[in-house]
Amino acid sequence: MDFNNNLFIALCRVSNRNQERNYRSRRQSSSKDFITFIRDKASRALGLEVTMEEIFYSTDVLIYGKDILYKGAYLSSATKKISRMLADINEIKGAYLSSATKKISRMLADINEIIPTVHDEISTLQSAGLATAQKRNAFVTPYILCQLETLFTLSRDAEFSLLSNERREVKTLKWFETLFTLSRDAEFSLLSNERREPFLNFFYRGHPDSLTSYLTTLHLGCEKCDMCQRLYIYLQTEALPLGEGDPELLILNPNSLNLESADFGSCPIQPFLNFFYRGHPDSLTSYLTTLHLGCEKCDMCKRLYIYLQTEALPLGEGDPELLILNPNSLNLEVYRVTEAGTRMSFIAKFCNSRTSQLILTEGKKYKQLRDKIFKLESSLFSYWMKTFNTIMSIDLTRPEWQAFYKVCPTQIADMLRHYTWLKTFKGSRMIGTTLPHPAHQSKSLMSEVPLPPTDNRQVECITYKLEEKSSETILETRGSFHPYIGSKTKEKLSGKLMVLPKAHRNKRKFSSLYWVQN
Question: Which residues belong to any copy of the RdRp catalytic domain (predicted)?
Fold first, then answer.
């Protein structure tokens, strides 16, 4: 493979005396002679100018489209991760890496000017880990590497801020010890407002309900993990601090919980942009008004408006928020073409990682904004510490906690949604959002001993018994099954306006809903 994206395949006869193990030692010299022969023919016979990219070759690196493979391992996600972590990618010394450098430069222009915040770094690392796991049948290695990189990133940012180039006002040793303990359990991210992906998301990517993914991971880990037991108990005590209860959050993300959490680095920018959109502060009212005005000319708007009115929900003229009781019906591309959706899309363009970092690198002009984000990041670490100490204070020796481990995770997810949005919906429950995770619906039995009759999992789970006793390593691979099962990811749709054609799939969805309703 050369670095001009040309692949050469040479078919050579191999005798019994010259096996592959003997030929492998002379592979480099044979490849060098072949490239030299091609260069001489091109320059002397054809008179072509040969560049360094065209004559450099490697038997370990394979570049295919956007993917880079090194000795069979995908490196496309690794290069994206490196481009965010390294301060200056151009200072790398060693082998000739022009093609890899070009790919990184195309993905992130002016990389030296981008200074990621804590949340942006963690999101990038988790996305890289999921993208790497999707290309492999074995997902354990990408999961471990991803969590270790996140662990080191958190430990570094707890001591020193890349945004302001100054140390935080904390004791380094104390924070390091706490973060190392905190970060070894990815399940803590549900409460810490940190985008850490649970283990099941690497194995089964595409499940539409992220809350049941977290809870099922905790439920499976309660047998051997003390941290999972404490989290599972803490989530069932209904002692969680509630947030402001803005129903607009459910339109943007139907899986959201109304929990109090620390603010992100982009939060200081959003109120500033909201100042210019005071005309329609209520996105739900604007959304319903847009649908009502479009009923005369748009058949899709008419059917959606009728569907929302005929739904068996306690609707009131002064309570438009109650229409979000089925948030999946509203969280579609239709919302993005409304006035409220356009406002949120415009704000999202200035709150994403790339735009906010370019704004923050404009010298002293935005020093006050950088200082405010620095304080928010420090408060984020303090919030993690406070929540972590609360969870660690749970005494696992109490006998009444044993019954909490057997509660269905799907039931807990429905309870959490009802509890956190209770005041906003005035006692009504959300529908069509809580979905059980496949790992909770089925169980593989490795031994010949069946489940005890008193185990409540027999009622709701399908148990698969293996014909013969196998090694537990089979659980580390997904076999021949494709990792994507479910809907497409929506990581890059936050700042994008969608145009709905007449034959759009969402129109067919609403047509089906209208037909079923009648």
Answer: 1-72
